[in-house]
Amino acid sequence: MSNKTIGVVGAGTMGNGIVQVAAAAGFNVVMLDVSDAALERGLSTIGNSLERLVQKEKISAEEKSATLGRIKTTATYSDLSSASIVIEAATENADIKAKILKSIDESVGSATVIATNTSSISITRLASKVSNPNRFIGTHFFNPVPVMTLVELIAGLQTDSLTLDVAKDFVATIGKTAIVAKNSPGFAVNRILVPMINEAIFALQEGLASAEDIDKGVKLGANHPIGPLALADLIGLDTLLMVQEVLSASFNDSKYRPAPLLQEMVDAGYLGRKSGQGFYRY
Ligand code: 3HC
Fold first, then answer.
1. Whole-structure pTM value
2. Cβ neighbours for 262, distance < 8 A, ≥ 6 positions apart
3. Which is the closest atom of ligand 1 to the Cα of 145?
4. What is the pLDDT of residues 201-214, one digit of tens each?
5. Domains of the chain
């Protein structure tokens, strides 16, 4: 890519992960968030993550500081004006994303690709919020972004092939692997992954086995890196419930109904790692 500046809006878990991998790959990255505290937290997460890599001798201390040096933080949308791609990675809420996309759209040129990192919101619907929907695409990263090598690219109805090529090029440049999925609820990966986790929650609720044994079973019996309930805690139970609800409402098929225990956990505020309590305690 000739223009090595990108923008990322949102300094949370997904946003700061994307910033880290892009800056490590040599991009100048503008990380935007409305809150100074969020920017500080994002930057400090990146610093800690890079420091771990230094300790493990995967990168040098110079590479760490060069990566950090390529990151600029801001709360001002006009700072995104020189970016070739701007990725919106804010909270998973269609109204908030729409507002942010409008602000991005007003700050960049017509050639800039605008992307959204979403686990379940329609790309075609979000594309309609920007003035040039042909240049809009879904870039679905996986958590933790520095570790997970996949980026699912989702073309909406209006996305043109040039935009898909720019996104593929970007994904390859940051050392990740792309798959292309249609704009359909859950896209490809969450359509499969989230119902699998939901089924594990049904299994727990029905007393089939303990949480530990369900996880041990899937880990050892199906060679997953962690069990589905531990993964639920990593993803966040509120996020999982939302994706499962999107699948259920979109397909109107009872096979996608959220496990009642998942709803109960979310109602109780047991959201997984981020709240200190999910299927396990943290
Ligand atoms: N940032 C950077 N590096 C991290 C990290 C983080 N947040 N978390 C773990 N790592 C690194 C560790 O440093 C370690 O590196 P090393 O192998 O070089 O020493 C490596 O990952 C393994 O970590 P650990 O030994 O601490 O622990 P695990 O072996 O359990 O691995 C894991 C952690 C990589 C998260 C692994 O458990 C895993 O792959 N889990 C599944 C993750 C997954 O499926 N994610 C997708 C979620 S779905 C999603 O995001 C989509 C959304 O739309 C819902």
1. 0.95
2. 198, 201, 232, 237, 240, 241, 244
3. 1
4. 999 999 999 999 99
5. 5-182 (3.40.50.720), 190-274 (1.10.1040.10)
